[in-house]
Amino acid sequence: MAHWYQRLLLSLLVIFVVTACAQRPAPEPVEEEVTAIEPRLPGAMTEAELLAQPVRFYLNIPYASNDNQRQQLDLYIPERPSYVPMPVVIYLHGGQWQGGDKAEAPGRMLPLVTSGDYAVVAVGYRLTDEAQWPAQLHDVKAAIRWVRARADDYGLDPQRIALWGRGAGGQLALMSGMTNQAQDMAGFLGPYTHIRSDVSAVVNYAGISDMNSLLEQESSLDRAAGNAPEAKLIGGNLQDNNDIASAASALHYIRNGAPPVLTVHGTSDNIVPYQQALDFHQRLADAEVEQHMISLLGGGHPDAEHIELSAAWAEADERARQFLDRILLGRNLPVDGSNIEFQ
């Protein structure tokens, strides 16, 4: 009898366990965590890629005595410099003052460094979501002062500094160069306000030189709108702020004795009208300033992505190198100013 009772209890226990297992919900599938891959900025290089180059590099150096990431610079120096101290090219990125990053510089500027002839400094600056004009100019001036003040630490030549800017960076390069001697335009950022911020030459890739005239020139942008790039820069519509727009226009600061300028501009640029370059260089010629202008026939605006893939812009880079060699290295060679056919 006891054996029968034990067998009954065992059977009931088995039935209970099987039933419980059948009712238990199946475990949910474990989803693998997927890390989104951010798009790579055109021209940017990873630290591993930089280490494979014959350069020394120092990234994200503050130049304005604060921790603002936009007020930092990157320094690239050849491992075997041809000159001691080295001439310096300061690169200013584009992005309509609303975007872009100094990290685009290596893809464009590294050939200057690997040649051994130049050090390159890529400068970040505050964008219009953070500050309005003249904050961006003051950032550039502070970065130039940093380069000059710290020249001995890195083997740089404080007497041979050029600016190279693309788009919005071109506007900043022109403004900084044309205001070499205007101390009231230099700002008071950083610890080196006692040091001058002048430069020896300017390379301008499609930078705006006269903001007010944009209202009369054909463009794909509505320059009279409150959300136009220039309006965001100066804090209001161009048509209502002519004085501020003029103060941000390098055309109005041209004088005899200004640093030499080379401009590269596409004849079909629908962002910064080609007429901007024509008018600016005519004014430079009138003031007897050394100037070279290269037209890309059929070329558009040099955005960061497409400029890397263009043979025409690569040819323009070679011409810009001729210009820098002439001004900073003292090589008595002509700069080829002939037109480049854009294909």
Number of strands: 9
Overall pLDDT score: 90
Largest sheet: spatial strand order? 1-2-4-3-5-6-7-8-9
Distance between the termini: 101 Å
CATH topology: Rossmann fold
The largest pleated sheet is described as: 9 strands, mixed
Q: What percent of residues are in strands?
A: 15-25%
Q: Into how many domains do the coordinates divide? A: 1
Overall, the morphology is globular
Secondary structure category = alpha/beta
Radius of gyration: 28 Å
CATH class: Alpha Beta
Order of helices and strands: HHEEEHEHHEHEHHEHEHHE
Instruction: Assign the CATH superfamily.
Output: Alpha/Beta hydrolase fold, catalytic domain
Helix content: 25-40%
Low-confidence stretches: 1-6, 8-38
CATH hierarchy: architecture: 3-Layer(aba) Sandwich
Number of helices: 11
Structure at a glance:
It contains 11 helices and 9 strands. It has 343 residues and is α/β, with parallel strands linked by helices.
Provide the descriptors you would attach to this structure in a database record.
alpha/beta; Rossmann fold; 343 residues; 17% strand; nine-stranded mixed β-sheet; globular
